[in-house]
Amino acid sequence: MHNNARSSHIETLAVHAGRQPDPATGAVMPPIHLSTTFERGADGLYPAGYVYTRSENPNRIALEACLAALEGGVAAAAFASGMAAIMAIFQALRPGDHIILADDLYHGTKRAVHELLAPWGLEYSMVDTTDLRQVRAARRPTTRLIWVETPSNPLLKITDIEGVAAIAHETGARCVVDNTWPSPMGQRPLELGADLAMHATTKYLGGHSDILGGAVIAREDDEFFQRIRAIQTLGGAVPSPFDCWLLMRSIRTLPYRMRAHTENAWRVAEFLLGHPNVMAVHYPGLPDHPGHAIAARQMRQFGGMLSIQVRGGAAEAMSVAARVRLFTRATSLGGVESLIEHRASIEGPESKTPANLLRLSIGLEHPDDLVADLSQALGD
Ligand SMILES: *Cc1c(COP(=O)(O)O)cnc(C)c1O
């Protein structure tokens, strides 16, 4: 591992973890190793330990060391997308195993479980994980994993990670947290007892809406993580060396981007809270958010995502989205530019998301400009 950062401060880790000047040239920024194959010595051995890029690539190994450091884990596996990381975790289970999932979570996770993994033999229960009694009651003797997403998508519900991890561990199950929304700046699930943290690095870690990627970070390099590693290298859904390199570059500014995303989200949330055409603002930083007390305990910052419910129904929500000029109407999140999205229409007819809900990914523009844009789009 090239983990040469000697600090536990996340700002320092973001700049230094997994990095060192290139030993061959002294280049301060690492080269991109595009070679798919590595030379074997006359003795038959591989002098640098690299054989073939699907199994291990210098840019990916460096990225994994960096991600493990950011989450306070011992190992990480990087994937070609967030969904590939999610699939690897579920595929590391066995047919007949049972999992518990939140009822409000990323719709791709829901669909993968329902459409791909249930036919393969995975059993699942969906409960409101904000209510620990429901989590406990859903357990079966075959329950192997409890999946948490907090804040959840798109309602920003807050689940008590420590509470769920304790319930999982009572019966030898694992607790996995999709930590995409808060990023390691907002929350470090492994410190709260979770066994694995998972990221769509496509979002805040990438931060510029130009990299697709995923990662799984482990508290222990145990047999379960070894299976995830095998699915990564044998299944082959690995990120390209260029994407690993670009992600390493993005991560350097993560702590400062997250501060500004959070600061701007606060400004926008406060504005929306007082607006007559807004019925509800879902942001865990607000004191009357039902999960606020837990969020304040387990999160270091509340992040840059929020949802609102506008007065009226789908038509009113769509027309607010139609009027924005600075926000971009697009799915996804975590980039420097602010996005607005009508979630129910992208989630499809099965969606339980309120028809009047708009999800906002607050970017790094000046907050006055964001507030002015929403003000003109909401009317009065
Ligand atoms: C985007 C997202 C994913 C999926 O990531 P992809 O890179 O699009 O495959 C998973 N979980 C959450 C919370 C997300 O926002």
What layout of secondary structure does this protein have?
Elements (H helix, E strand, L loop, with lengths): L9 H7 L41 H14 L3 E5 L2 H10 L6 E5 L4 H14 L2 E5 L4 H7 L4 E7 L11 H10 L3 E5 L4 H4 L9 E5 L13 E5 L4 H13 L5 H11 L2 H20 L4 E5 L9 H7 L6 E6 L3 H10 L4 E2 L9 E4 H5 L9 E5 L5 H12 L2
Helix pairs in contact: 2-9, 3-4, 3-8, 10-14, 12-14
This protein binds pyridoxal-5'-phosphate.
The site of pyridoxal-5'-phosphate has 15 residues, from helix 3.
Question: Could you characterize what this model shows?
Answer:
The termini are far apart. The protein has 14 helices and twelve strands. With 380 residues, it is α/β, with parallel strands linked by helices. It is 38% helix and 16% strand. The chain has helices at residues 10-16, 58-71, 82-91, 107-120, 132-138, 161-170, 183-186, 223-235, 241-251, 254-273, 292-298, 314-323, 343-347, 367-378, and strands spanning 75-79, 98-102, 123-127, 143-149, 174-178, 196-200, 214-218, 278-282, 305-310, 328-329, 339-342, 357-361. The longest helix has 20 residues, at 254-273. The chain has two domains: 10-251, Aspartate Aminotransferase, domain 2; 255-378, Aspartate Aminotransferase, domain 1 (Alpha-Beta Complex). Pyridoxal-5'-phosphate (PLP) is lined by residues 81-83, 106, 108, 149, 153, 178, 180-181, 200, 202-203, 212, 214.
